[in-house]
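Hi support team,

I submitted a single chain yesterday and got back a structure, but I'm not sure I'm reading the token output correctly. Could someone confirm the output below corresponds to the sequence I sent? I've pasted both exactly as they appear in my results page.

Thanks,
R.
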Amino acid sequence: MIRSITQKKSPEEIERLLQGLNRIFIIGCGTCTTLTRTGGEPEVKDLKKELAEKGKLITGTTVVPVACDNLTRDFLNEYGEQINQSDTLLITSCAFGVQTIARQLKKMVVPGLDTLFIGKETAFGTYDEICTQCGTCIIGETGGICPVTNCHKGLVNGPCGGTNHGKCEIDVNKDCVWTLIYNRLDELGRLESMKKYQKPRNHLGEPRPGKMKME
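Hi R., thanks for writing in. Yes, this is the structure output for that exact sequence:
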């Protein structure tokens, strides 16, 4: 399952962000942050306890089904009075969820988490990044394996000179992605694809914020 990977902000940072804000309504998310155990029901409960011990008044808590969904506002209407009584909303969702709720409610919002990347669970409690959303996807020529995400150097032409017996020079416990690409293309009878020179990546990227209009 693909999800936004997040980590909890430190108690010190949350305390700083909540400085001068004493009435808090806490909102968790029932999808990604529940699955990664960073912002679901147990984490919201713990956060409520921690803040109450520091003298904050918690006007209410909830875990919305999907924080980044436009229907979230309808779900939160049930907590309208508790939300109105608060100085701010402390939200334990990915950044997209925080921004979605901020657009829907006229309330100060504070994120309780840092959003790291889009990834998948590869073992219990272990998440690997699968896409950097670079906008220049070449996996059609690399056997469906992304070198930008999986190579520590983000090389689009590889391998580098440091690879050793199929392992990465930066992390010797990690398979060199270009070895994996070679083996994959070999299995598919498409090794010729590795001879194609890929243009260097534009690390400056496109002007922000990104925007696309479908014609």
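A quick pointer for reading it: The mean pLDDT is 88. Let us know if anything else looks off.

Best,
Support desk
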